[in-house]
Specification:
Blueprint: H1 6-9, H2 20-28, E1 32-35, H3 47-56, H4 71-83, E2 93-96, H5 98-110, E3 116-121, H6 126-134, E4 137-142, H7 154-158, E5 165-171, H8 183-195, E6 199-203, E7 228-233, E8 246-249, H9 253-265, H10 271-281, H11 284-306, E9 313-314, E10 322-326, H12 332-341, E11 348-351, E12 353-354, E13 368-372, H13 377-396
Parallel strand pairs: 1-11, 3-4, 3-5, 5-6, 6-7
Antiparallel strand pairs: 2-8, 7-8, 9-10, 10-13, 12-13
Helix pairs in contact: 3-10, 4-10, 5-6, 5-9, 11-13
This protein binds pyridoxal-5'-phosphate (PLP).
Length: about 400
């Protein structure tokens, strides 16, 4: 018998990965593909990681860890948050398999099938997939590229609130836009959450990658703490996405207890990831300061190079490592396909992500792409130059004319 659930059928292929076969065949034809499609950076993780892994080579206990997390890992998160001025009890903090699992836990804990969560689009696409699997509806407030993805005003959020609304999700700094939320915007979200008694899901995966200052966690704003579930991760902060280590934290006891029961259903997060977390979190600042400077430099390179390309629209990212570009084309996916199948410059081409799938509202973002600056500056400069050349070549072909 062949059965696929209707929830699973709602899933779309990841916009970040779906052009993989085309990139592979370009590579087989001898074309070097400069990959700006995925947020998987080229930077070396901190040296402390390798020292820790060498020590862990002697580890002989591979039993399940507690569902609530290994004590060393939980207290490392607790101390890390203390340094940010955030107070959590140990039972408020549950290590997870990356932020991805924390997102899943938060949705499970807060929403039943048919419930709604207000989000800001464009947004990290995995939220769409995870919500679809749980039959939770994401109701989007649209942030626009031409407005540098600023919040259009509180009433845009309020008009989406229904009896089924359970939470507002905020990703700060943001993927895919690189937006760092302004205190004024965050306060608006908190005020609405308080007024309508909604939870806040705060994804602060990119907390340390902020070019304009230090990201103030939403939990340190008045009135947010008791209604927020915090999603966090080491993936980007320490350039170790493959270690799959993250956390979910909330001071709300009912949610903590519920999340622990959910965590028990998956037994435990991996031991190695938790021990690595314990070792790295204590010395977070030195490494994260270095990568912040590097990403800021790369962002400036990308901006400078993009400004040389005519007809495009760009935003000014202030954090994370992404850049959105509006292209003078009808269909960015068609352009990406062209770049991977028909175009190369000196045997090189570029792979970027189409933005349409980062939106929930159909039809939005069709002419937009996202660049992840996961290559060093020289390569990035070259990649953006190739993108510009590709765009000119694409526009010259009649069938691709934007008419
Ligand atoms: C906003 C956001 N949240 C969560 C994740 C997932 O992180 P993790 O690797 O910890 O699962 C990502 C990954 O790109 C992300 O951009």
């Amino acid at each position: 018998m062949k059965t696929v659930s209707s929830r699973a059928q709602k899933l779309i292929a990841s916009p970040i990965r779906k052009f993989f076969p085309l990139a592979e065949s370009a590579r087989k034809k001898g074309v070097e593909v400069l990959k700006l499609n995925i947020g998987d950076p080229d930077l070396m993780p901190p040296q402390a990681l390798f020292r820790t892994l060498a020590k862990l080579a002697k580890l002989s206990n591979f039993n399940y860890a507690p569902s609530s997390g290994i004590e060393l890992c939980v207290s490392a998160w607790q101390k890390y948050y203390q340094k940010l001025g955030l107070k959590f009890e140990k039972e408020n903090i549950i290590p997870t398999v990356g932020a991805s699992e924390a997102i899943q836990f938060a949705l499970w804990a807060l929403a039943d099938p048919g419930d709604e969560i207000i989000v800001f689009e464009p947004l990290f696409t995995n939220y769409k997939a995870l919500a679809a699997l749980l039959d939770v509806k994401l109701r989007p407030v649209t942030l626009k590229l031409k407005d540098n993805f600023q919040l259009p005003g509180a009433k845009e959020i309020v008009r989406l609130i229904t009896k089924k609304t359970k939470a507002i999700l905020i990703i700060n700094p943001d993927n895919p836009t690189g937006k760092v939320w302004q205190p004024r915007e965050i306060k608006e979200v908190i005020d609405i959450a308080r007024k309508y008694n909604l939870a806040i899901i705060a994804d602060e995966t990119y907390r340390e990658i902020n070019f304009i200052g230090q990201t103030k966690s939403i939990l340190s704003y008045n009135g947010a703490k008791e209604r927020t579930i915090l999603i966090d991760s080491l993936s980007k902060r320490f350039t170790i996405p493959g270690m799959r280590t993250g956390v979910i934290a909330t001071t709300n006891a009912e949610w903590s207890q519920t999340i622990l029961k959910i965590a028990m259903a998956r037994l435990s997060a991996p031991t190695i990831g938790q021990l690595v977390t314990a070792a790295l979190l204590g010395n977070a600042r030195k490494y994260t300061d270095e990568i912040r400077i590097e990403y800021k430099k790369r962002s400036a390179v990308v901006q400078t190079e993009l400004k040389k390309i005519s007809g495009i629209t760009i935003n000014q990212p202030q954090g994370a490592f992404y850049q959105v570009v509006g292209l003078p084309v009808k269909d960015a996916e068609d352009f990406i396909r062209f770049m991977l199948t028909e175009f190369s410059h000196r045997k090189k081409t570029v792979w970027v992500s189409p933005m349409a799938d980062f939106y929930i509202t159909p039809g939005l973002g069709k002419n937009e792409i996202r660049l992840a600056y996961v290559l060093e500056s020289k390569k990035l400069r070259e990649a953006v130059e190739i993108l510009g050349r590709g765009l000119v070549a694409y526009q010259k072909t009649f069938k691709h004319l934007n008419i």
